[in-house]
Amino acid sequence: MVPMISVQLYGIWVYSFADAGAAPASGSEASADLPWLLEHLLGLAEMVRDVLPMVVVVLFFQYVALRRRLPNPVRVTVGFVMVLVGLYAFVVGLKMGLFPLGTQMAEQLIERGAPALILLFALLIGFATTMAEPALVAIAEQAEAVSPAGISAAALRLVVAAGVAAGITLGVYRILVGGPLHYFIMASYVVVLLLVLVAPRYIVALAFDLGGVTTSEVTVPLITALGIGLASAVEGRSALIDGFGLIAFASIFPIIAVLLYAMALENIPRLRKEPS
Amino acid sequence: MRGWHRDTRGAGRPGGDRPRDGSRAHRPRDEDAGTLGHLVHFNREFLRALRNLLPIVAVVVAFQLLVFQRMPDDPWRLVLGLLIVGVGIALFLQGLGLSVFPVGNLANQFTRRGALGLLLLFGFAIGFAAVVAEPALIAVAEQAELISEGRIDGVVLRLVVATSVGLVLVLGVLRLLRGWAVHRLLIGGYVVVLAATFVAPPEIVGLAYDSGGVTTNVVTVRWSPRSGSGWPTRSGAAARSRTASGWSPCA
Hints:
The structure holds 2 protein chains of 2 kinds. Chain A contains 12 helices and no strands. By secondary structure, chain A is an all-alpha fold. The radius of gyration of chain A is 22 Å and the shape is globular. By secondary structure, chain B is mostly helical. Chain B is built from 13 helices and no strands. Chains A and B meet through helix 1, helix 3, helix 4, helix 5 and helix 6 of A and helix 1, helix 3, helix 4, helix 6 and helix 7 of B.
């Protein structure tokens, strides 16, 4: 949540104090007419900037703080090159696959003009991607192993997936009908805060963690593109003001769902998984 | 939190809090496996990425066939794009496993030496570096820069988020060491978030809330909470329940 605070501060700075002058031409557009190989080499070079902090951290702590050599410099170098190439491939694939996919789905859904279908799509995407999320499987199993209250991993996954589905659906509904995003978000957070006060203490940190794992690097681009596509297609919405926010819904609602689940476990003993 | 269960054998499990000699941690699974082992490992990561993509493809195909009854424009390009994403993620994760993750264990050494300053610096550096290279955040930042017509600078946005996550990790370490109650921190934080929303321009609000959700992803979570759960508490609070304090400091 600290990022939420600082990004808002950044926004205040950008929109209040920074001059609204012409947007700087971004590098990727300028290189559109370069030969194929050169374009990708330039793209890779740009990625070095993103990977550099990690390299610096690893080297700094290894050599300066621990005063030790790298155990296996070749392996580490190969690893960093793979990180670099992988990250670049991811970005290229985003622009070819996930972004256009989300945008096209948004356009086609809007063309059909049936709001129920749009909501159904949001629901299914949210539920299916979350159920298949390997990270969620892992953390749910850990939670089952260490929790005192008979949490079942399978039920936890279902609860989280239902939460994500509900969140994305509500977010899409808001894009369709309008209404300021922050009221929806605030209302959701008020619910979270109230639930945190009454829910069993042990579940709180886990619930917030589960809210975080649901948005993977595959779903985030798709859902963002979907939201922006919908917001630009629906009349009276601005892509910038209304297009974002789906990820936020997808992070908050699983928290609510998990807190409710824990409270249900407390109060309805039949739901508890028998310790085996 | 992808792969947490796999990469953290020992460090992330209940009872796995024992200090380990991190920087030289011998992890024979990946290190000494040779080319074949690397290929097998890459294959596994690639299949995981595909498994992540599969439900999206399934839902989209179902809608195309049942509802729209037509093909999307240029379907093979989309499929190729998705495959490239899969390969990219697999390469990325395997590269991290070779180069960066072994360093995560340094936290234990700093704790054992009682070097709180180094531990905090390490926490900040990890959070910052991990978020700068976070694929999901790169995706959101690209979109933001695109639709704000360059007013929101994607790189600056990512640096802002990265700095914040660094600070969150510092807070998280302090919380583990001092035993602060997580729900108080959370409530306090959200009050500030809501207060900021009242003064922030509407263009940034959605993006800001989204950026809270994308930071807990591949690099960040794989790298940090396992250090987090591997950080023993020194304030005699060993009895603190693992479910309450062992989960990631990222929330």
